[in-house]
Amino acid sequence: RFVLQGAAISKITQRIAYKGIRKWKTINYKEKVGTKESLEEIRNALAKDDCQPADHIIWNSIKKDEIRRPIQLFLWKIIHRANKCGDYWFGKGEAENRMYCSLCLQGRKRKYKLETIEHILTECKKGAQKDIWEAA
Predict the structure, then answer these.
(1) How many domains does the chain fold into?
(2) In which domain of life is the source organism classified (predicted)?
């Protein structure tokens, strides 16, 4: 005997197939620790305004039509910690020195600051932070 599971290929639409694949992929999906931490940091920042949004509300808020696609992608990468900075370079051989902010390592007071997006946008006093925020 032959046991057929799922939809018959002759009857399936691309939409049904896509939904099935997405469902199959998410069954064993485990959220990354960095993503969970980022979402928690967002909630903590919004707690000052008595706002504790659920994860899906945070994700939907960056997908709004008012936000240009490159900005949406940038925000998505920040939340997933997918930018190639900081810890990304750990264990990458000679490129490992890219983990630290090269601007903070210059001068007399050499400080090893992990080069995260947060450091680049809000902490680094030697970078183009001022220019970035003036342009924003």
Answers:
(1) 1
(2) Eukaryota
